[in-house]
TrEMBL record:
High-level lineage: Bacteria, Bacillati, Bacillota, Clostridia, Eubacteriales
Protein name as it appears in the record: Ion transport domain-containing protein
Keywords: Coiled coil, Membrane, Transmembrane, Transmembrane helix
A single MF term (Gene Ontology): voltage-gated sodium channel activity
UniProt source species: Candidatus Syntrophocurvum alkaliphilum
GO cellular component: voltage-gated sodium channel complex
Membrane topology value: Multi-pass membrane protein
Domain spans labelled Ion transport: 25-244
Length: 289
């Protein structure tokens, strides 16, 4: 995320302006993204015991470099913010800070397993650096409340079809529809379209040729309708996030332009006052002569 600062604070805090110029530079963002991806590759290589044992020293050095570069990045972003506590008003900034700070706190050998898991989460920092990923994840998060009714509808459909399946196919296919629980699990396999025809439906069709009506009806309702409702809600929220981001960007640009205009107006007013003062002094000296 780009730090928030204004011109007034930049004049008062030179280090803030210097940090902001670094953090907002496109090359800095590309460098951090590249480093996160390289870190991801290194973490993946560590899962191979032979490679890790042979180059353990290099892996330790690489981890130290990654950690301290990311630490410096967080410090620069903190300095670039007009007020340090504003940095933590952004959820992505909090996420980045916790991931990096945890690596320093849990550096003790007693927390090696937890530290390795946290290092894996460090890869997710790419989301906070890449704006398009931020918008996608934000859209998914905002989708959660809207999915309540859809989940309720899907739960009802699953329950109704599971009860029907248990009643109809318990004796024919007890491994799939012997109980309500196994029926729900079988329907979950069907709704994902994972081997539903060959593994679930066709063995039942041998005994009950009309069983295809049950499965086709469930797939049409469960997969092609309910799942598409999920996708529709996510796409709608994503479009709203894109529009909101565009509006916020335009408002920020307008605010920056207004601030710059006010600064120029103040400078012009000061320059005008200086000119008037010089003219008055010149008039006084001429009268004295």
């Amino acid at each position: 995320m780009q730090p928030v600062f204004n011109n007034a604070n930049v004049e008062k805090k030179p280090y803030s302006a210097w940090s902001a110029r670094i953090v907002q530079h496109p090359l800095f963002t590309k460098f951090i993204i590249t480093l996160i991806l390289i870190n991801a590759v290194v973490i993946g290589l560590e899962t191979y015991p032979d490679i890790f044992t042979a180059y353990k020293g290099y892996f330790i050095i690489a981890e130290s470099i990654f950690l301290w570069v990311f630490t410096i990045e967080i410090i620069l972003r903190l300095l670039a913010t007009d007020k340090w506590y504003n940095f933590f008003k952004d959820g992505w900034n909090v996420f980045d800070f916790i991931i990096v700070a945890s690596a320093h706190i849990l550096v003790s050998g007693h927390f090696v397993s937890i530290l390795r898991i946290i290092r894996v989460f460090r890869i997710l920092r790419a989301i906070s650096v890449i704006p398009s990923l931020q918008r996608l994840v934000t859209a998914l998060i905002k989708t959660i409340p809207a999915l309540g009714n859809i989940l309720l509808l899907m739960g009802l459909i699953f329950y109704v079809f599971a009860v029907m399946g248990t009643i109809l196919f318990a004796e024919v296919a007890p491994e799939y529809f012997g109980t309500l629980g196994t029926s729900l699990l079988a329907l979950f396999q069907v709704v994902t379209l994972e081997s539903w025809a060959s593994a679930v439906m066709r063995p039942i069709l041998v005994e009950l040729p009309w069983a295809w009506i049950y499965f086709v009806a469930f797939i049409l309702i469960g997969t092609f309708i309910v799942i598409n409702l999920f996708i529709g809600v996510i796409v709608t929220n994503f479009q709203e996030i894109v529009v909101e981001t565009k509006v916020n960007k335009e408002e920020d640009e307008e605010e920056d332009a207004q601030t710059e205009l006010e600064r120029l107006s103040n400078e012009i007013a000061e320059l005008k006052a200086v000119i008037i003062s010089l003219q008055e002094e010149k008039g006084v000296s001429q009268k004295n002569n």
